Amino acid sequence: MLERGAKFSALVASNDDMAIGAIKALHERGVAVPEQVSVIGFDDIAIAPYTVPALSSVKIPVTEMIQEIIGRLIFMLDGGDFSPPKTFSGKLIRRDSLIALSR
């Protein structure tokens, strides 16, 4: 994107590992995070607070989701009816890789 001259103020990566790689690539090209581009990932991996800048992330309740799936499978295997899906919400973990946009 940078080589093509694309202008952007934020980058959303599908996971934290990719976000960390993006921060490295931006740094190597002289792009300051978050001053020029905000970066956020998903997963909130253990190393996220220790990257430079500390990576903002969306924490997904994976443990609760797995518990729900297993419970539903056991219920259905025991003859229970399929019930409506449960909704799970992620939580924004705001760290140093995000900056507020000026209005």
TrEMBL record:
<dbReference type="InterPro" id="IPR046335">
    <property type="entry name" value="LacI/GalR-like_sensor"/>
</dbReference>
<keyword id="KW-0238">DNA-binding</keyword>
<dbReference type="GO" id="GO:0003700">
    <property type="term" value="F:DNA-binding transcription factor activity"/>
</dbReference>
<dbReference type="InterPro" id="IPR028082">
    <property type="entry name" value="Peripla_BP_I"/>
</dbReference>
<feature type="domain" description="Transcriptional regulator LacI/GalR-like sensor">
    <location>
        <begin position="9"/>
        <end position="97"/>
    </location>
</feature>
<dbReference type="GO" id="GO:0000976">
    <property type="term" value="F:transcription cis-regulatory region binding"/>
</dbReference>
<protein>
    <submittedName>
        <fullName>AscBF operon repressor</fullName>
    </submittedName>
</protein>
<keyword id="KW-0804">Transcription</keyword>
<keyword id="KW-0805">Transcription regulation</keyword>
<dbReference type="Pfam" id="PF13377">
    <property type="entry name" value="Peripla_BP_3"/>
</dbReference>
